Amino acid sequence: MNPVVVVHGGAGSRVSQDREERVRQGVARAAAAGYRVLTEGGSALDAVESAVAALEDDPEFNAGCGSVLNVNGEVEMDASIMSGKDLSSGAVSAVRHIANPIRLARLVMEKTPHCLLTGQGAAEFAAAMGVPAVPEEQLVTERRRKHLEREKQKEAQNPDQQKDLGTVGAVALDAKGDVAYATSTGGIVNKMVGRVGDTPCVGSGGYADSAIGAASTTGHGESILKVNLARLVLFHVERGRTLDEAATAALGYMKSKLQGLGGVILLNTAGDWAAQWTSESMAWAAAKDGKLHVGVNLGDTRVTDLP
Ligand SMILES: CC(C)C[C@H](NC(=O)C[C@H](N)C(=O)O)C(=O)O
Question: What is the DSSP string of 228-239?
C-alpha cells in the first residue's frame, strides 16, 4: 500500500495575501512531516498525530499556540484522534494550558478506558501523565487578541459574518492499509466559556474505519455536530459514492439544512483522497507518491516534489 496523508488548516473566509504564504507553508510542512512518518514505516495514527502537532505549534492556525480566544479572552481547546484499525479513539475538550491537545487526546485513547476527558479532569490527567502545563501567554498571540476585540465590536452589527480559518486536521493511510484521523481547534472566537464544538466528538470532527476510510472536518461546529459530518461523508463512501461525490453530498446537506459552512478532507483504503469546502477557502495539503499538492484559495493548487 502506498502511504497517503492529507491535512487541512481550517475553512473560513478568503486568506489575506500577507498570510497566504505562511499558511501555505504551514500545511505543506505538516503534510511532509506526516508523510515522512509513513515512509519510515510509521502507522497512520503516528502520522496524523505528528502532522496535527506541527500545526498546533504553528501560530498561524487556530489550534494550540494561536488558538482563538473565548469571551473571557482565554484559550480553551478541543481535539480528537481515532485509529481505523480497531475504532479506538481519544479526545479532550475545553482544555487549557496545554501545548499539544492532540497528544493528550492520544493519551486518553491509550491510557484510559474512556473516549473523552474534559476541563479539570483532563488537566489532572495531563499532570498525571507528565504533560507540562504551559502559561497562557505561550498560547495567546497578538493577532488573536485583536481578533477578539474586533469580533466584540462587530457582533452587535453583524453576527453572521464569516470568520477567520485555522482549525487543523489530518487523515492518513499507512503501508499496512490502516487509516486514522486527528483534528484540533481553539473553537470559535468569542465563544461562551465551556462551549464544546464538533472537533472532540467522534463522528463530527472526524472518523476513521479501515473498512471505509478516514475524514477530518472544519467549519461551523454547531452545524457539523447536528449532521455528524465526518460519519455522514463516510456513509456516502460506504454506499459506493466517489470521495468527491461523498464530500459534495455531505457538505451540501449541511448547507441546505442549516446554512452551515465548512470543509472536509478524506481518503479511502485504495489511496484516493479529496479536499472540499463550502466556505470561501480552506487551506489543505496532500502527500502521495512523492508529490505534495497544496491549496489555500479556490483554484490555486500547486504541486511539487517531496524531498
Ligand atoms: C469560521 C469558521 C468556519 C472557522 C473554522 N472553525 C472551526 O473549524 C471551528 C470548529 N469546527 C468548532 O466549531 O469548534 C476554522 O478555525 O478554520
Answer: THHHHHHHHHHT
**Is 64 part of any known ligand binding site?**
no
185 is catalytic: no
51 and 63 in contact (C-beta within 8 Å)? no
Collapsed DSSP state (helix, strand, coil) of residue 153: helix
Residue type, 184: S
Residue type, 182: A
Domains and CATH numbers, the chain: 4-90+140-305 (3.60.20.30)
CA 269 to CA 87: how far, in whole Å? 15
3-state helix, strand, coil in the chain (%, to 5): 35, 25, 40
* Confidence at residue 16, expressed as pLDDT on a 0 to 100 scale: 86
- Alpha carbon 83 to chain centroid distance? 15
- Cell numbers placing 173: 493511510
Atom of ligand 1 nearest to the CA of 195: 14
Query: What per-residue confidence (pLDDT) applies to 307?
Result: 82
In whole angstroms, what is the distance from residue 18 CA to residue 289 CA? 31
User: Distance between CA 253 and CA 100 in Å, rounded?
Assistant: 32
The full length of the chain comes to: 307
Which stretches of the chain score pLDDT less than 50?
none
Q: What is the pLDDT of residue 298?
A: 80
Q: Is 219 in the pocket of ligand 1 (CB under 6 A)?
A: yes
- At residue 162, the pLDDT reads 52
Sheet (strand 206-209) strand order: 206-209, 213-219, 262-268, 273-277
